[in-house]
Specification:
GO molecular function (chains A, B): DNA binding
Shape of chain A: elongated
InterPro entries (chains A, B): HTH_LacI, LacI/GalR-like_sensor, Lambda_DNA-bd_dom_sf, Peripla_BP_I
CATH superfamily of the largest domain in chain A: Response regulator
Helix content of chain A: 40-55%
CATH architecture of the largest domain in chain A: 3-Layer(aba) Sandwich
Protein name (chains A, B): LacI family DNA-binding transcriptional regulator
Order of helices and strands of chain A: HHHHEHHEHEHEEHEHEHEHEEHEE
Structural class of chain A: alpha/beta
Oligomer: homodimer
Keywords (chains A, B): DNA-binding, Transcription, Transcription regulation
CATH class of the largest domain in chain A: Alpha Beta
Largest sheet of chain A: 6 strands, parallel
Strand content of chain A: 5-15%
Distance between the termini of chain A: 77 Å
Pfam families (chains A, B): LacI (PF00356), Peripla_BP_3 (PF13377)
Number of domains of chain A: 3
DNA sequence: CTGTTAGCGCCTTCAA
DNA sequence: TTGAAGGCGCTAACAG
């Protein structure tokens, strides 16, 4: 195997010292333009690329960002092949931003429920020494993890977390998104709008419900508590909640579900009862994973900007590592509402 | 930031030398069981995890496997949100296998068409110094890349490549898969089975067509060359090919498409012409990305075992790095045929 | 502005 | 069976 080209070769080629090359590579100050040019020419000629491993040894940066996902949920999503694309979207936002600054992103799966969360995270960090971490739900609000990172002094971003606290909180305005979704239905003429909640384990669940409530309040419309259905993000819970809602004496004419799977469940239950979507029952979902684009009819959905959030997270972490000051402690990324065929005015 | 625990701390804790700890970590020979035990206790107590960066500096292993994907195609898949899950499946197979041996997997996007492929790959390697590479199509058969890796002496695996050559070739039996898909249609009673090819840029395209041909040959059935439609893996090409096939004087009663997108296109075109799937036209697709499970009717599809292939690739690379001998130069992973609602006997 | 020195944490080689 | 010395490629701290 051909020996790799190192900073030494570049130094020799350019006729300068090791350190000068290092300065040029890291855009350090105090190098004459003429020397910079000579070094850069040598770098290009030799095709030199610094070794990340060595950089992390000498200095204190690894140029690595680590994303922590929930083990069970991620594997479940992969195995079931239900078309969720969280990881893809994260990679798209995060990897591309990392590449812009010579960083790399690496994924790790961590078991939230394990008694050893802390040890697991610590092990991953010890092995790779990332410059920053990106936490996804439910890790984002796990004090065991955030506490550890604070103790280690490692910068981190919490995706989809609106709670203030340590690290950067990156989120969309979940409450407003729910509100906008409900307003969309109200504008269509619906007055009884059911809501299927998410699992209590996730902070967003309560926030989304709050948006549903506020949409009614803002317009001075009454809200029947019976229209709140109990879900936990699974398809089955969506089926149960929908069945309960449709069994009401005065059933809803529209349902907002806290995620796509439960919205699909609502669609299935509606179909089973001979209800036509959207005319007998409008459905709006949350997240907009690819699968809802292929349902019949395609689903109106709140678009969760995962790629943008991850990009923002990577951006902040990279800048934090470069000691940029005055960074915001939280970022709110705009959400979208994709209006498709599952929402329409109610039958009059 | 609390200083990280290093091999030195462990050595001190266990009352042995640095080197002995290193031997225990790496399961080296010549250490007394009693000492091993003492060291292991110290490791556990201190929560020591070796730094990958340091390991790669001193020794020669980085415990990193690098997967190279085509930049444009991957970003296109992520952006379009069409529900393909190549990357997820690769991560599932690769990451989990890596984790079993303390390895990590990292993704890189490489532009195949760029004049600088070689430089791009070389840069990624120089930065991360992976112990092995996993190439995905179309990189798998790119001599610029494989040639470079051979020169560098880096082990690599070529996913979905059946061509013998350098590196490990990991594939499913593409020809047999196509043949089995066609036989499924023949068994249903179809006699005019159209085929939509993939892009010539991918070696599998020709191989899949060969399976279609062989299925007929094996049963002594004639094959009308007009039944071969020209595709390039895009939805649009699938539409064109289907339109051409259906315009034949004697149109096919079934179509096998070389990937899911083209199969969906066939379904769309059929619907637009008032043809009912599967009764007027049966459709079978290749790959089985999640989206085809949600089409109406759900698509019968050849299941491409991406996770298994990536797992096999990671497994071979890890073993190769550990100098295990007698490794196979190629691995054929079993494929599947998911029979769903898009295939049925033709109208008699 | 530029060069020199001293590690970073680990593994390889050699000596005990 | 164990330990000590040297170096991997780079950067921080200090000299010049």
């Amino acid at each position: 195997m051909r020996r790799a080209v190192t900073i030494k070769h570049v130094a020799a080629e350019a006729g300068v010292s090791l350190q000068t090359v290092s300065r040029v590579i890291n855009k350090g100050p105090n190098v004459r333009p003429a020397v910079i040019e000579r070094v850069e020419a040598a770098v290009a000629k030799l095709g030199y690329v610094p070794s990340l491993a060595a950089r992390r040894m000498g200095g204190n940066r690894s140029f690595l960002l680590m994303a922590l996902n929930d083990r069970d949920r991620t594997i479940e999503a992969w195995t079931s092949g239900q078309g969720a694309d969280w990881v893809d979207q994260m990679l798209m936002g995060g990897m591309l931003r990392c590449a812009e600054s010579g960083y790399h992103m690496i994924f790790e799966l961590i078991d939230t429920h394990s008694a050893h969360v802390e040890r697991e995270v610590q092990a991953a960090i010890s092995a790779l020494r990332p410059d920053g971490l990106i936490l996804t739900p439910p890790h984002s609000d796990n004090p065991q993890i955030t506490g550890l990172l604070v103790r280690l002094g490692l910068p981190f971003a919490r995706l989809c977390s609106e709670t203030p606290g340590d690290g950067f909180a990156i989120s969309m305005n979940e409450a407003l998104a729910a509100q906008v979704a409900v307003e969309h239905l109200l504008d269509l003429g619906h007055r009884r709008i059911g809501f299927i909640t998410g699992s209590d384990e996730y902070a967003v669940s309560a926030v989304r419900r709050e948006g549903w409530r506020r949409a009614h309040e803002d317009r001075g419309l009454p809200l029947d508590p019976a229209l709140e259905g109990d879900g936990d993000f699974t398809f089955e819970s969506g089926e149960r909640a929908t069945a309960t809602l449709l069994a009401l004496a005065e059933p809803p004419t529209a349902i907002l579900a806290s995620n796509d799977q439960m919205a699909l469940a609502a669609q299935t239950v509606a179909a089973a009862r001979g209800l036509q979507v959207p005319h007998d029952l409008s459905i709006v979902s949350f997240d907009d994973t690819p699968v809802v684009r292929f349902s019949r009819p395609p689903m109106t959905a709140v678009v969760q900007p995962i790629a943008e959030m991850t990009r923002a997270a990577a951006d902040l972490l990279i800048r934090a590592t470069a000691n940029v000051d005055h960074l915001p402690t939280s970022v709110v990324v705009p959400f979208g509402l994709a209006v498709r065929g599952s929402s329409a005015p109610p039958r009059s």
